[in-house]
C-alpha cells in the first residue's frame, strides 16, 4: 500500500455536529479536539511523515470573542497534553501561521513545545492555527523583497524556500470532512497536486475505518503530476 508522505486535514463540522446533538458549540469543539488526537495516532501508526491539521484559520478571528477565547484555551490545553505524545512518537511539534494575535503566554507555550521536540526525526506534526494560505504566500514575498533579490532569480523554488515550512514536501493527500468540497485557503501553494477527499461526515464522527478507506483509495490512485 502506498502511504502519503505528507497529509493535510481540514476537520470541519464541529458546530454542526454539536447542534445535531443538542449540545453547545464549545462541546462540539471539545469532541473535535479529542478526535484530532485519535487522527494523529492513526497517522503515526501508518508512519505518515508529515501531518498538517487546519484547526483555526486567520479568518476565524472574525468569530465571536467568546468562541475565539474558548478555542485559544482549548489550543493551549492541546499543546500541554500532547507534547509528550509527540516526543514519544519522535515527531516535531510545529505551529504554522501568523502569531501576531496570540497572547504572550500562548506564544511562550508554542515556542516551548517547538523547542522540546525540535530534534525529533520521525516526522512533523504541524498545527495550522491563525493560518491562511494567501497570507503565507504574501509573507514569503515580503521575505524575498526584504532580501532585495534580483527579480530574474525569483522562481518557484525560491518562493517555496520562503514559505512557513520550506523543508517539507508538497501535500500528497488532503482530507476535508463536513460535506464542504473546498479548501478554504488551506495550503494553496503546497496542494497543487494533492489528492483530495471530501467526506460528508462531520468531524467529531469521523472514524478510523473511514480514514483507512481513504488511505486505501489514495493508494490505488495513479498520480502523474501532469506528465
Task: Please explain how this structure is put together.
The protein has a six-stranded parallel beta sheet with strand order 3-4-2-1-5-6, sandwiched between helices. It starts with 5 loop residues before the first strand and ends in a 7-residue tail after the last helix. The longest helix has 24 residues, at 65-88. The protein has one domain (49-213): Undecaprenyl pyrophosphate synthetase. Helix 1 (14-20) packs across helix 2, helix 2 (25-45) runs parallel beside helix 3 and helix 3 runs parallel beside helix 4 (104-116). The chain is built from seven helices and six strands. The protein is globular, with a radius of gyration of 18 Å. The chain is an alpha/beta fold and 227 residues long. The mean pLDDT is 96.
Spell out the key features of this protein.
single chain, 227 residues, alpha/beta, Undecaprenyl pyrophosphate synthetase, six-stranded parallel β-sheet, 7 helices, globular
CATH topology: Undecaprenyl pyrophosphate synthetase
From the spread of the alpha carbons, the general shape counts as globular
Number of strands: 6
Low-confidence stretches: none
Distance between the termini: 22 Å
Helix content: 40-55%
Going by helix content, strand content and strand pairing, the class is alpha/beta
The radius of gyration over CA amounts to 18 Å
> What's the average pLDDT?
96
- Counted by DSSP, the helix tally is 7
| Whole-number tally of structural domains | 1
Strand line-up in the sheet with most strands: 3-4-2-1-5-6
**Strand count, sense and closure of the main sheet?**
6 strands, parallel
Amino acid at each position: 500500500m502506498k502511504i502519503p508522505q505528507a497529509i493535510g486535514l481540514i476537520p470541519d463540522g464541529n458546530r454542526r455536529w454539536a447542534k445535531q446533538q443538542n449540545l453547545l458549540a464549545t462541546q462540539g469543539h471539545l469532541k473535535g479536539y479529542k478526535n484530532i488526537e485519535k487522527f494523529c495516532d492513526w497517522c503515526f501508526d501508518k508512519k505518515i511523515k508529515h501531518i498538517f491539521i487546519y484547526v483555526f484559520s486567520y479568518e476565524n478571528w472574525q468569530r465571536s470573542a467568546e468562541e475565539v477565547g474558548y478555542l485559544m484555551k482549548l489550543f493551549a490545553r492541546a499543546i500541554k497534553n500532547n507534547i509528550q505524545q509527540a516526543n514519544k512518537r519522535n515527531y516535531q511539534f510545529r505551529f504554522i501561521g501568523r502569531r501576531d494575535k496570540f497572547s504572550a503566554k500562548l506564544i511562550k507555550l508554542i515556542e516551548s513545545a517547538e523547542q522540546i521536540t525540535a530534534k525529533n526525526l520521525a516526522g512533523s506534526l504541524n498545527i495550522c492555527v491563525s493560518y491562511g494560505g494567501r497570507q503565507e504566500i504574501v509573507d514569503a514575498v515580503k521575505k524575498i523583497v526584504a532580501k532585495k533579490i534580483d527579480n530574474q532569480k525569483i522562481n518557484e523554488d525560491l518562493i517555496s524556500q520562503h514559505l512557513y515550512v520550506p523543508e517539507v514536501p508538497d501535500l500528497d493527500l488532503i482530507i476535508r470532512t463536513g460535506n464542504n468540497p473546498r479548501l478554504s485557503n488551506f495550503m494553496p501553494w503546497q496542494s497543487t497536486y494533492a489528492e483530495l477527499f471530501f467526506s460528508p461526515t462531520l468531524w467529531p464522527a469521523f472514524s478510523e475505518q473511514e480514514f483507512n478507506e481513504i488511505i486505501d483509495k489514495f493508494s490505488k490512485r495513479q498520480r502523474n503530476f501532469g506528465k
